[in-house]
Design a protein that fits this description.
Radius of gyration: 19 Å
Distance between the termini: 42 Å
Helix content: 40-55%
Number of helices: 11
Number of strands: 12
Structural class: alpha/beta
CATH architecture of one domain: 3-Layer(aba) Sandwich
CATH superfamily of one domain: NAD(P)-binding Rossmann-like Domain
Shape: globular
Length: 329
């Protein structure tokens, strides 16, 4: 089988590319002209230059591919121009799925996010059926992914497009070259630059388990269904304690109230609007931190045979990769 992978130069996309190659599939990666190719170096991958907002380039990229793994996304928690996020994540998703199916793809795996799902009260793990509405979406990234998933569902219902949706939680591990917001937190903690924490919680998963979940969704997932690809629920304090143990540093003990951090985030965004650089903290990230973002992957376990490794192993691989590539200097 030949598969088109979008976002193949990125963190999750590169892991999907590697897993597909391991399974014996041919891979064509959609890349932008300006995309760094480090995550594809040395791999037997065909590349197609294109853009999610350029339908002609997508038609060329999809030609001859039997499957699409759409992992590309504009994953920013802050930008001076939010419209860019919606264009990439909503319009771009519809464009590439239509291009792939018009070119003959018989199966699509769409990478959504647990950010589109509801949260259970009291910090209990949420699942694919937990009630949610767009009013629950904090920030442009989450809203864009929520709207994109709604468009995918319309394509399935109205046009019969064969899409399986996967919702990864917070992936960590090797080749987070940018790095992602979660990766930046690991870097700061491992480098000893995070002396305090806020009370929050995440579901941590190894990026290679997320890639495995994508392949299993392709092979076993039911069209129109969505599957959470998560790992273990951990408080931020537990995550930082695990990183401290891995690096031989003292774990942070100072807990900052959210109402103390919020003014810092507002100031950081004000500076970012002037400087053009990404803020060290964002208002939306602080708002999200008020909730425990815990999720259950039981459905993926039952239907896909999905079985992620312990979160400690995922964090260990992430810290080792960042250290070996100079991020902790």
């Amino acid at each position: 089988m030949k598969a088109l992978v979008t976002g193949g130069t990125g963190f999750v996309g590169a892991a999907i590319v590697r897993r597909l190659l391991e399974a014996g599939h041919e891979v064509r990666a959609l890349v932008r002209e300006s995309s760094p190719r480090a995550n594809l170096e040395g791999l037997p991958v065909e590349t197609a230059v294109g853009d999610l907002l350029d339908p002609e380039s997508l038609a060329r990229a999809a030609r001859g591919c039997e499957a699409l793994f759409h992992a590309a996304a504009d994953y920013r928690l802050w930008t001076p121009n939010p419209a860019e996020i919606y264009e990439a994540n909503v319009t771009g998703t519809v464009n590439v799925i239509r291009a792939a199916t018009e070119a003959g793809a018989t199966r699509v795996v769409y990478t959504s996010s647990v950010g589109t799902l509801g949260l259970a009260p009291g910090g209990a793990p949420a699942d694919e059926e937990t009630p949610v509405s767009i009013a629950d979406m904090i920030g442009h990234y989450k809203r864009s992914k929520f709207l994109a998933e709604a468009e995918v569902r319309r394509l399935i219902a109205r046009e019969g497009v064969p899409v399986v949706i996967v919702n990864p939680s917070a992936p960590v591990g090797p080749r987070d070259i940018k790095p992602t917001p979660t990766g930046r937190m690991i870097v700061e903690a491992a480098a000893g630059r995070m002396p305090a924490y806020v009370e929050t919680g995440l579901n941590v998963v190894h990026v290679e388990d997320v890639a495995e979940g994508h392949l299993r969704a392709f092979e076993r997932g039911r069209v129109g269904e969505r599957y959470i690809l998560g790992g273990a629920d951990m408080t931020l304090r537990e995550i930082l304690g695990e990183i401290a143990a891995l690096t031989g540093r003292a774990a942070p003990r100072l807990r900052l109230p959210h109402n103390v951090v919020m003014p810092i985030a507002y100031m950081a965004e004000a500076v970012a609007r002037i400087s053009g650089s990404e803020p060290v903290a964002t208002v939306d990230s602080v708002r999200m931190a008020r909730k425990l973002m815990y999720f259950s992957s039981a459905k993926a376990g039952r239907e896909l045979g999905y079985a992620p490794r312990p979160a400690a192993a995922a964090l260990a691989d992430a810290v080792a990769w960042f250290e070996s590539h100079g991020y902790l200097a």
